[in-house]
Input
Amino acid sequence: MRRKKAGADGTRSAPPVLARVLRGGRVESVHRGAVAVVDAAGRRVARVGDDGHRVFIRSAGKPFQALPLLEAGGEKRFRLGDDEIALMCASHGGEPSHVRVAARLLARGGFSARDLGCGAQWPMHEGSAQALARRGLRPTPLHNNCSGKHAGLLLACRIYGFSPRGYLEPGHPIQKEVLRRVSDFSGVPAAKIPIGVDGCGLPVFFLPLAALARAYAGLVAKERPGESRFAAAVRRRVVRAMTASPAMVAGRGRFTTDFLRAGGGRWIGKEGAEGVYAVAIAPSEANRGRAAGVALKIEDGSTRARDAVTLAVLDRLGLLPRSARRSLAAHRAPEVRNARGEVVGSIETESFAIAAP
Output
């Protein structure tokens, strides 16, 4: 399959359809996008559509944003366990357990919720939001789905001796440390990574989809060129925390938590806003003993088909075990319901072809 190129006016050809929304057995809407499958050395394994298309990686970047703290010895200094490390990589639901762990992270560095620059946000978990409202309370920055990441960066400022003032700015020393890790794992020189502002105020990185997939493959690779033994242990610690504490990474009723549980250590996955998802697949016989990364982007930014497409890609690569297909069945073909809770349609993945590069 030949890669589609931009037209003379600079516009791209329409990406392939990845999923269809059905109502009454008829197609109501379609979701287009692209998928990249890459190994830790940057070799393209498979793709759907334009895997070189640049995307803002959004919250899929969180595992890499946690690395500077841990590489500086933050786990020991701040007594971090699985819950704390997982929450630093999380887009959590703002459930009480998430709020408690975020507050605990801050306290261990002598910070409070007032130091968080992410802003207040109603919990994404509907039950937790309703509980706050019933008590007549307003959300705080601790309820923000990115509070764990921000707390981790504040702790990183403490251990590196950086002032926490302005820690959200791209020019802040801690953000330069983060950019260095993103560049290292993605294979894209730091000077060639455009930066925007994420929903929580932090820098967000604009990477080719294949580079995001490569970065995720590196998280679970057996070894990486030039990597110290300690740096390898740190990335594996991030992976271990996410798999050991999946409820911290997302929460009740969320795909990522269910996906991590179903993986049994075979993979980690992390969503990003605007239809981004990334998966790191550990080396196994199923993928010829090589670590692999999968990254996808739903073109219109919708999340409703994202999870089903993620599972369809793994299934077609032969990497989704039967047990995971069963436990994640509700995410593979989500139901469309009306206001009365009646099933009136479904979201189904398209029979897209995963092409060799």
Summary: The two ends are 8 Å apart (CA to CA). The domain at 17-349 is CATH 3.40.710 (Beta-lactamase). The chain has one domain: 17-349.
